[in-house]
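Note to self: keep these together.
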Amino acid sequence: MKRVLVINYHRIDTGAETDTSRLEQLYAVRRESLVTQLDLLVKKQIPVIPLSSLVSNSVRDNFSVAITVDDGNETDYSVVFPLIRKYNIPVTFFLSLTGKNVSHLIREQIIELSGNENVVIGSHGVNHKDMTRLSRKEQEYELHYSKQFLESLTGKPVNFFALPYGMYNRQILRLSIEAGYKAILTTIVRMNNPRTCPLVIHRWSVKSETSIRQFEKMINPGSVGFKMNSVISMVKFSATRIIGGGMTNRFNLWFRQKPGKKN
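Structure:
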């Protein structure tokens, strides 16, 4: 059985920004860590494939990874883009139009990114809101307007929608299909099977605290570490459905700052 692990990143920490929120710091991976992780994929000869191969069931290898980057931070352009060219790997950038970050991509950077053959631009919504907490009209706006705006800007189809906070339900899935997306992406940790031609793609988000040892376990689909992360991810998803994405993130920050908790 062919399996695909989708690895997700957010902002890349260059040390230049000092006024970022604690939540952004939690998901900010240092450039040195990203390079080490990419080098490990090369060393282990793990293929990096585009998301389109996953949804079209054209994956060749028994195990491969795809890489996505959320939010539309400026480091997509200044850090990740040069690495795409260095390693010659495909990456999908998911852009939130209004931005929730200190430093956000500008139009000219998005256009240049989209012109590279290894880059795909996807939507992360307009306002980066938990879609399950919105009315149907608001959900349709997030899906349609972001898609239309990015397609108009880049001149290319936008086929993928990354769910803010990873949350969705049947209505959101149905509305996404009606809007013309080929798949939506969540943050539930699970292997993807290209034979099922998935409408929902699962991802694993790398965090600032992710060690190279943890990363190595995650790119070993049979490891205990991967299975444990999958279980924990499902528990978090269930909790988030009840209390919302924003509240879940605040709890995560509180838990990591408890006395005696090692980061």
